[in-house]
Amino acid sequence: MADKPFNVGRDCRVVLVYNGSRIKLPTVTGFQAQQQTHRLMSMPLNDMPSFYDTPNGWSGGFDFQRDNSGADDLFAAIEGGFWEAGTMILGSVYQYVTECDGTSTTYEFMGATIRLTNAGHYQSENIVTQHIDFMARIRNKIS
Fold first, then answer.
1. Most exposed residue of 57, 102, 109, 133, measured as fewest CB within 10 angstroms of its CB?
2. What is the domain extent for residue 60?
3. Residue 34 forms beta bridges with which residues?
4. pTM recorded for the entire structure
5. In degrees to the nearest 10, what's the CA dihedral of 45, 51, 55, 61?
6. For 28-52, how does the pLDDT look when each residue is reduced to its tens digit (9 = 90+)?
7. CATH number for position 98
């Protein structure tokens, strides 16, 4: 099989694991992530300025079709756990990328907090889509 010249959206799969359980989100339609940094600046009187970015976690989000109640059930459990017992649980987001040469790379966004920023717009003759945003402590390369 010949190498592809670049990645396309179909080269990515996303899995959400929260409180030790894999959340069923069968049809993820979009994913994005960005590194967060803390910018440090030094402005010496006798030299040019220096700038440094220190790692400060990751943020991102993903869109998915509402094929089942997985996301709604998860967020109901998160809210219930918080209001009943004050629990705050972190999860992980896994990103699987098929590289242009056919190999696979896996990233884990660890220590992720999530929020359901769009629970869906229900309208006749349209697909209901939902959106989850996340913030994670770190992104590790698994393979």
1. 102
2. 9-141
3. 59
4. 0.89
5. 130
6. 999 999 999 999 999 999 999 999 9
7. 2.30.110
